[in-house]
Write a structure and sequence with these properties.
three-stranded antiparallel beta sheet; three-stranded mixed beta sheet; 202 residues; Nucleotide Exchange Factor Grpe, Chain A, domain 2; 15% strand; 6 strands
Length: 202
């Protein structure tokens, strides 16, 4: 007996009917799309965090650099002020050394006038007086002035006491005599005045 037609019919049916997949089979196949989206979200979050950290780091560096600049600017301003002050002080007291060398000359001229012998020629005396006046003008032009002493309270910053004398009419520690004049240039003492001071009777 021939069975070919029945077998052929079953073959045709199997070709036409699709193979049925169970739910279990479908779950076995991975879905790549959600995984790729999650990876992209993680990458985006990492990139944002990295950019924020870089921005904070740059802001910190900028603030530090600005602070260094402000400190340097302040230091430079202080340096300029100090240099200007030193220059002013140098110019103010530039003639101090020369003035100190001229003071003994002035002392000698004044002593000569104070102890002028009789019979001295008038022309010589006028010449000496003119010399003293010129020296005083030169010293005064650079800020040198005589320190007041006689009759003033004794000041150790301005006076140098080399003796004392009793006095009932004068307050104690008052300058009673000037033995050598003192001079100062502006607020700097070139040399103190040599003086005697009063003291109460013992």
């Amino acid at each position: 007996m021939c069975v070919w037609p029945a077998a052929a019919a079953r073959y045709q049916i199997n070709e036409i009917m699709p193979t049925h997949r169970t739910e279990h089979d479908q779950n076995d196949q991975p879905d790549p799309e959600p995984t790729e989206r999650g990876t992209e979200r993680v990458k985006t979050a990492d990139t944002g965090a990295s950019a924020s950290a870089q921005a904070q780091d740059l802001a910190s560096q900028l603030e530090e650099a600005n602070g260094r600049y402000l400190r340097l600017a302040a230091d430079f301003e202080n340096f300029k002020k100090r240099v200007r002050q030193e220059q002013a002080e140098t110019m103010r007291y530039a003639a101090a050394a020369l003035a100190e060398r001229l003071l003994p000359v002035l002392d000698d001229a004044e002593r000569a006038m104070a102890h002028m012998p009789e019979g001295v020629e008038e022309g010589w005396l006028r010449g000496l007086q003119m010399t003293v006046r010129k020296l005083e003008e030169i010293l005064g032009s650079v800020g040198v002035e005589r320190i007041e002493a006689e009759g003033k309270p004794f000041d150790p910053n301005l006076h140098e006491a080399i003796g004392s004398e009793e006095s009932e009419d004068t307050d104690e520690d008052t300058v009673t005599a000037e033995l050598r004049p003192g001079y100062r240039m502006h607020d700097r003492v070139l040399r103190p005045a040599l003086v005697r001071v009063s003291r109460r009777p013992g």
